[in-house]
Design brief:
Oligomer: homodimer
Distance between the termini of chain A: 36 Å
Largest sheet of chain A: 6 strands, parallel
Number of helices of chain A: 16
Strand order of the largest sheet of chain A: 1-8-5-4-2-3
Radius of gyration of chain A: 22 Å
Order of helices and strands of chain A: EHEHHEHEHHEEEEHHHHHHHHHH
Chain lengths: 426, 426
Amino acid sequence: MDNFSYYTPTLYEFGRGTEEKVGMLTFLTGASKVMLVYGSKYAKNNGLVDRIANSLLTIGIDYVELGGVRPNPTDELVYEGIRLGRAKKIDGLLAIGGGSVIDTAKAIAAGIPYKGDFWDFFTGKSQVSEALPVGVVLTIPGSGSEGSGNCVITKADTAVKLSLRTDSILRPRFAILNPEMTFTLSAYQTAVGIVDMMTHILERYFTTTPRVEVTDRLAEGLLMALIAEAPRALTDPTDYQARANIEWAGTLAHNGLVGCGRREDWVSHFMEHEISAMYPDIAHGAGLAVVVPAWMAYMAHHKPSKVAQLGRRIFGIDARDDRTAAIETVASLRAFFGAVLRMPLSFKALGVDDPDIDAMVERLHANKGEVIGGYYKLKADDTRQIYELMLDPAQVAARQAGRKSEPEPAPDREAEPEPEAEAAMA
Amino acid sequence: MDNFSYYTPTLYEFGRGTEEKVGMLTFLTGASKVMLVYGSKYAKNNGLVDRIANSLLTIGIDYVELGGVRPNPTDELVYEGIRLGRAKKIDGLLAIGGGSVIDTAKAIAAGIPYKGDFWDFFTGKSQVSEALPVGVVLTIPGSGSEGSGNCVITKADTAVKLSLRTDSILRPRFAILNPEMTFTLSAYQTAVGIVDMMTHILERYFTTTPRVEVTDRLAEGLLMALIAEAPRALTDPTDYQARANIEWAGTLAHNGLVGCGRREDWVSHFMEHEISAMYPDIAHGAGLAVVVPAWMAYMAHHKPSKVAQLGRRIFGIDARDDRTAAIETVASLRAFFGAVLRMPLSFKALGVDDPDIDAMVERLHANKGEVIGGYYKLKADDTRQIYELMLDPAQVAARQAGRKSEPEPAPDREAEPEPEAEAAMA
């Protein structure tokens, strides 16, 4: 266990009807005029934004609106929000939505009091020392942004997606979590949220810090709860208890709890960011469902110990040697993502027939450094192999045929498809 | 899952050397003159109090001292602290010690700004609406008071021990947790702390709230981590990693995390409070090591379901029917408390040869109501049987012999000892 500071001053109001407290909670942040930030559909259409606006007015809090946040939110709306917020002299923000909405609100909250360009915070040129208070009414669980001090924004002109991590200054002051608001999420939206939550846990789980039994057990517990509750929410989208357990697990997955005292490893997120930067229609969670098992399969062959521990503890795998246990763990995780969550498991299933892996690898290391990863150090040759593990068998075959054709014209381009994508690793 | 509010604005500074931050952290609470509260031995003798006092002076924070807090802290020192604090015009408190010290500091923090008698908060006559900031340097883990809004004080003249629970106003502003400070704890002190932690988890675990998978899994995870790390700390008291995992588990056991969204059941604590009120030399954790398995054994016969779940998940018990699994769970827990932690498992082992069970039952229900308990409702007849389960076989035999003698003079008082204390339940 490493030394750590842990400070989570977010008030969570969890359960049915908790959105009725939004006026009082906003008042308690000291704000008198807030910006309501929301997406393009759900929150406005179903009247939630108007209900919240009314409850603010009732308590004497004025507001302005900034709608239209889209998935993978960009700097453009942040700049617009900063201009609007300064012009209207707001002193707080209220995010009504999921991660994209919350992250946009956080970036605006940090940008308004800052004299320079808010993007400085993301490039590391400057640090956030001041921010307006942000409150959250969560409608899409998964990002964990409602309880974290982090935020991810994409630079629209270059498609560079960067994360900003703060200890606590960007943590929301309060987060209202009513699981009923998630009843209308589609099976797909529910599933991508669950993959995102599981990845937030796994990227903290895989660490080189020894003797982290407490946080290992907490991480495994959250994963087991998600694995148990996911099929219930998918079978009955209005199963309140399943929705509630999933939503709370999603907050705890990312508020720092399972990262206390350990080095973390965000390689799967970084690798996925390059995919969704290049193919912006891919949902973050869907991309992760492809990346995480591929990364883990590579680990099963290069550093299987913690993969094996994970599988033994959460899937009940009893193989005695670590490599076998790790391979079975990857198979179990893939089965859960594929058969239960109905998530894509390959580039092809993501709709990317011919992924530009060279470009992904190049951008990944240009953005994150020559050597990346905590649990296991990865260079370009490693990350290339991991991306190749995301190809489905037909894609592997097509590439092998293509590669053969370069040095010598191939007499037969229809190579036998390999039975498993992992064969690409050999 | 029930609705809940969860707000934990305590900054945890965890690890080696973190006590060096005490000056800055105290400064950040806004305090300019604090009361240093500590016990009778450890913190003063080893120079910790003086080191902290010096680091406060360096940063320009003045202080007064209040030493001599004892286990099962009483109202007398709280009154003294309130008088001293008002006279010296302190504006903050720093507790250097374990639960007794922290609870004394919290009661003083609430008492100083209150016009009435601070005991009003404990009797429910008044609620805490204001308190001075409290910081903690933890030297004895177990109570969890460093992260909780609760505090337990005993009225010296009546031996009534009452708990005060607040949402967040009495949560420490910061808690400094350096596992090295726990190296000098004896095996006994270490063990009673671990039993206290486990009980904080178990009394939240046993609930009637359905579908609490997330918090169940977190609770089980913390228990498994404690069970794994305890023997390591007992074998090598300077095993930093074992001490660190135990200390952090102890904080999470009681800061509300595993109670979110569920009704809790504090019957074991209530039953133990009556034992230690009557026999004040008994350490709280040692009393709990006797009470908890007895309560759980009673549940194994009356409501085994959750006991069985616990044992299946943390001890790997595979008995198919709940009652058998529950009985095996109790046996496993007793084995851990007895063989690993070397804790007492009966009144006799606690040094109480002839416990006044009638008086305990009467006081328990007088203090807590005719029907107590959440997971399973207990009346006086039930709690009497649970107390009787804490008798060791020789004590059971002696009592049976004694009882027989009342209606008719017994020819032979040496009844055969029952093989198991549980036989008293039959």
